[in-house]
Specification:
Distance between the termini of chain A: 40 Å
Distance between the termini of chain B: 62 Å
CATH architecture of the largest domain in chain A: Orthogonal Bundle
CATH class of the largest domain in chain A: Mainly Alpha
Largest sheet of chain A: none
Shape of chain A: globular
Order of helices and strands of chain B: HHHHEHEHHHHHHHHHH
Mean pLDDT of chain A: 90
Low-confidence stretches of chain B: none
Radius of gyration of chain B: 20 Å
Low-confidence stretches of chain A: 347-355, 357-367
Number of domains of chain A: 2
Order of helices and strands of chain A: HHHHHHHHHHHHHH
Structural class of chain B: mainly alpha
Strand order of the largest sheet of chain B: 1-2
Oligomer: heterodimer
Helix content of chain A: 55-70%
Number of strands of chain A: 0
Largest interface: A-B, 59 and 56 residues
Chain lengths: 367, 325
């Protein structure tokens, strides 16, 4: 029993140490010093309240996306399209911010509502492609991500350019009344968004554990065929899971344009949606862990923006550390299971991965 | 044919080459029952390593070899993760997609923006003198000729050798193959790594031949996903996969020709969306439901032929794990 605990703990720590060690070697390989890199990232995230606000501003959309992805993973779906859903949310919110004239609190509400609609529509398209037209959600998602970015770049460089000419890097800043206000100049974070994040966390956990919808999603994710035979509307669960995820991602996108940038920019999601997928893989779809792991990833992300200034290093290092960590955790999980089954019974039943093509004519396999 | 059109078709063949090689590599892997989802990242990582190795050693062969090694190594991680450690191959493939893309950008940062001389164009004596065909297909860099060879080699291997029969069997009915003495998981390792090596070669064919150099974002960003979709469009058959790659490259060339023409005013950014619309459309088309409805419009004799041509059945055991005991 005791050696089992030791084993568990070492398999928890092992991937962290190994991924940090590999990253250190890579840093040395490009001619830099790992200690200096760590120092720069730490400074980038914690040197003052302004820097830490940067962490929180990554954390907010990251948690929103990750909580949405908890829902889609529970339903057995690979919602790679979460990036595009964020971008669509950003576009819809930007439209409201540019066009509508309303009292500030109402306007912000409308913007966020529209962002949710945009994200949900884009996600619904992924669901439609999957359930009706037999396109696997990974391919539908990848394509719709790119199309959302194309749409944003088109709007920025075309119709949304100010008549006197602007840049292709961003639209003109939105009117002050349409933006989310910061708490203070020293700690520029929006309070409403933080509140929304906590509501989202609670809502997702309650919905998955305590509602019929959550039960149906879990059944669909575990075994779509038996779920369908037991009367679960699997197509509807899949599409609704995607759309709820799209709503949350849409709010994340809105936060990027209504707070972080105050304008619409190309690739406005900044890879946060993909990072959300990594978060959820890392926590093995356990919702309660999401805010904490997201915080760690947000620290790495925000901290690494300083690498360029301090050490002339590319900030893609953040992605390297995060990806390496998730990869090694997945591999260590497998290793642990192999060790465990040595002194226990057989492993669990064979798990089936999703082949990359689905067929609309066999209802049950659609999900 | 005007010389201009011949030039365009010649560049279509060249530009399709990485997709052809990557598509064939992925076909080999998926025919054995494993999906290497990491293409979009591993292409970039292999391209970067191949380019830098060539620059450092001055020997393009070293570059090609390193690139293939990188592709094989990434594929090996997927094989170990799926077969030996029983983790979701899609999850590992996806993480590797992101990780490899970031690794390529991070490790290649000192070389970003560098270019090099492309591999020389080799005209095949005799063949390249054939009018039109010779100019389109036989005045290319060596890697293009290798891709021709690969098309037939993969086809011959899969459908006309005993080894190819076993190869297909482990992707279709692993239990039956195992019962007949085929070492299913060992062969899956082999074909995953082999397919990965070809993906690596495809990466190098961008950075060393077709679009020589290394940039950020890399020129092949997105092509990995296109290659994966082409394998599905191609119904896991080498000839159709290659046809898909050429069609795709041709439509891309058409798009950029439209963009250059002064009469048609389409914003450049919208044309960037074209590959993705094309990808979804073809995937919708090969999913049987859409085809059934579409073929009904066609005259009867063509119906059966079209249907069987457009059918796309994945290897039955694709994505499933095989436990011998």
């Amino acid at each position: 029993m005791k050696s089992r605990t030791v084993l568990q703990i070492s398999f928890f720590i092992l991937p962290i140490i190994v991924s940090l060690a590999i990253t250190a070697v890579l840093i040395v390989a490009v001619g830099s010093d790992p200690r200096e890199v760590f120092e720069a990232v730490w400074q980038g995230a914690f040197r003052n309240s302004n820097a830490f606000a940067g962490v929180v501003n990554f954390w907010i959309p990251l948690v929103l996306c990750s909580m949405g992805l908890i829902i889609t993973f529970t339903a057995g779906l690979w919602n790679i399209g979460v990036e595009g859903q964020m971008v669509m949310g950003a576009i819809f919110a930007s439209w409201a911010a540019r066009t509508l004239v309303l009292p500030p609190p109402v306007l912000v509400g409308v913007e966020i509502g529209l962002a949710m609609l945009g994200g949900a529509l884009w996600a619904g398209l992924v669901g439609l492609l999957k359930t009706r037209l037999g396109v696997h959600e990974i391919f539908g998602g990848v394509a719709l991500n790119s199309l959302a970015n194309v749409a944003a770049i088109y709007l920025i460089a075309g119709p949304w350019q100010p008549p006197e000419g602007g840049s292709a890097q961003a639209t003109a800043p939105f009117p002050a009344d349409s933006l989310l206000p910061p708490v203070s100049a020293e700690f520029p974070v929006n309070l409403l968004a933080v509140v929304i994040v906590f509501i989202a966390i609670a809502a997702v956990i309650i919905a998955l554990r305590g509602t019929r919808w959550g039960l149906e999603l879990r059944a669909t994710g575990k075994n779509p065929r038996s779920a369908l035979l037991l009367g679960v509307p699997t197509t509807r669960s899949a599409v609704s899971a995607l759309m709820v995820c799209g709503m949350l991602a849409g709010i994340g996108g809105a936060y990027r344009v209504l707070f972080t940038y105050s304008s619409l920019r190309p690739f406005v999601s900044g890879g946060i949606g993909f990072l959300g997928l990594l978060v959820v893989l890392l926590v093995a779809v356990k919702a309660l862990w999401v805010p904490f792991v997201s915080l760690l990833f947000a620290v790495i992300l925000a901290g690494s923006t300083r690498l360029r200034v301090a050490l002339q290093l590319d900030q893609s290092l953040a992605g390297v550390v995060q990806g390496m960590l998730v990869l090694l955790v997945l591999l260590a999980n497998g290793l642990r299971q192999r060790f465990m089954e040595r002194d226990s019974r057989r492993p669990e039943a064979e798990t089936r991965d999703y082949p990359l093509i689905t067929r609309p004519d066999t209802e049950a396999e659609n999900v | 044919m005007t010389p201009e059109l011949i030039n365009i078709l010649n560049s279509v063949v060249a530009n399709a080459t990485p997709l052809v090689i990557a598509g064939l590599g992925e076909t080999i892997t998926e025919r054995a029952g494993i999906t290497n989802l990491s293409l979009d990242g591993s292409l970039a990582l292999a391209a970067m390593f191949g380019f830098v190795a060539t620059l450092v050693t001055g020997n393009p062969l070293a570059g090609l070899l390193i690139a293939m090694l990188v592709g094989a190594l990434v594929a090996l991680i997927i094989a170990v993760g799926d077969i030996t450690l029983r983790q979701d191959q899609v999850a590992i493939g996806f993480v590797l997609t992101l990780l490899c893309a970031d690794l390529a950008q991070f490790l290649g940062q000192d070389y970003t923006g560098s270019r090099s001389t492309p591999m020389p164009v080799v005209k095949i004596p005799g063949l390249s003198d054939v009018p039109v065909v010779g100019q389109i297909f036989f005045s290319h860099q060596a890697i293009v000729y290798f891709s021709y060879f690969l098309i037939f080699a993969v086809w011959f291997w899969l459908f006309h050798t005993r080894g190819g029969l076993a190869h297909r069997a482990i992707g279709e009915r692993p239990a039956a193959a195992f019962a007949r003495g085929t070492p299913v998981n060992r062969l899956r390792y082999l074909y995953t790594v082999l397919g990965g090596a070809l993906v690596g070669l495809a990466g190098a064919s961008y950075s060393m031949a077709i679009k020589p150099g290394w940039s950020n974002p890399p020129v092949m960003r997105g092509d990995g996903w296109i290659a994966l979709a082409i394998v599905i469009f191609g119904g896991w058959h080498p000839f159709r996969v290659v046809l898909g790659a050429y069609l795709f490259a041709a439509l891309r060339a058409l798009a950029s020709a439209i963009q250059r023409s002064p009469d048609i005013q389409i914003p450049l950014v919208l044309l960037n969306g074209l590959p993705w619309i094309l990808m979804i459309t073809t995937l919708v088309l090969v999913s049987s439901g859409a085809i059934e409805r579409l073929t009904r419009i066609l005259p009867r004799p063509v119906q059966r032929w079209t249907r069987s041509f457009l059918r796309s059945d994945p290897p039955a055991a694709l994505g499933t794990r095989f436990e011998p005991d």
